[in-house]
Amino acid sequence: MNCSGIDVSTGEPVEVIFDSIIREVRPLAASEAPEIDTDVWIAPGFVDIQVNGFAGVDFNHPTISLEDISDALEMILSTGTMRCLPTVITGGPDEMLACLANLRRAQVQLPRGHAISGFHVEGPYIGAEDGPRGAHPARWVRPPSIDEYRRWQHATDGNIRLITLSPHWPEAPAWIAAVVKDGVAVSIGHTAATADQITLATDAGATLSTHLGNGAHAVMRRHPNYLWDQLAEDRLSASFIADGIHLGQAFLRTALRAKTVQRTVLVTDASAPAGNPPGRYRLGEQYADLTPDGRVVLVGTDRLAGSALKMNQGVANMMKLGGLSLRDAVQTATVNPARIINLEGRMHGLQEGERGDVIVFRMNDTIEIISAYLEGERVV
After folding, report:
1. Secondary structure of 250-299 in the HEC alphabet?
2. What is the dotted CATH code of the domain comprising 45-348?
3. Residue 298: which of 130, 142, 164 has the closest Cα?
4. Do 116 and 73 contact (CB within 8 A), yes or no?
5. Residue 271: which residues within 8 A CB-CB, separation 6 or more?
6. Structure confidence by residue, pLDDT tens digits, 333-360
7. Nearest-angstrom CA–CA distance, 176 and 36
8. Rounded CA gap, 334 and 47, in Å?
């Protein structure tokens, strides 16, 4: 397969020759460059490490059909996301295990199941109080358990790649150290932890803050607080939901300066309504409304329950709202998340030997995907 365009990372016209892996990235000579539309860009496919559902399909429903998961995956691919981590949130132990086992079946059995690069478990080891808990059901919040973690890994054949927890639990540092030893990334999130607790978690091996600025109290002490503590910790990268709803522009820009591009990860935190019209959707054991202005809120509340964000729009928003260049915005959606979860073949961008996950797009108000390839197979 051959694709040409302006390389996002260099700004130069290139031809990428690839199949399941990238064979060559060939700079185009001046005589060839006029044939390239200067508005057509080429980049690695996006990597979304937090997606709870899509296209009306809730990944937190343990009996969702493989056909429905396939439909959701096709819609995710259409946004330029070639690799994703379906995310299971706080729920009953049996329900969470069943969701993970069902998603693992999809990963193995679906023709494009290899776009699922593993799984993110967000909770249940989070803060129980209103605000930090977010939209997670309070009755299922519980302390960290290595035995439960082992059951998750057994159900997914070792494919848990990322776990979000609050480090306020006394068991958290030892639990984090044990999980990290297995090669799983641990993220701090849905927490009101103290500075010392955040430091102990980072010492134990936590490397990320989950959707920083969200899953927090609506009103808190101006300083110190757990947002500043995580922003100031240079050992932590941070993910952000750049939908223009979850975060104000001033916070996003300030946080990006604190973390720098190298430690910033774009996530959608998409839930079942993403890609669908406004209406009511099931989210695990709860229901949420997608409002006409794009908010996903638990029924009868103003609590956000994931987002309706698409990754291509998120990258555009990182430019518009976050003030990043196209190159830097794409980095936050490609190599940065891949490095957090140690996703082999996706950590170096458009380079020889990397996986053949390639997207070609135009820049408008959003990023318009022209074509997309998953390990050399055209999927858009």
Report:
1. HHHHHHHHHHCHHHEEEECCECCCCCCCCEEEEECCEEEEECCCCCEEEC
2. 3.20.20.140
3. 130
4. yes
5. 52, 53, 58, 281, 283, 288, 296, 305, 306, 307, 308
6. 999 999 999 999 999 999 999 999 999 9
7. 49
8. 5
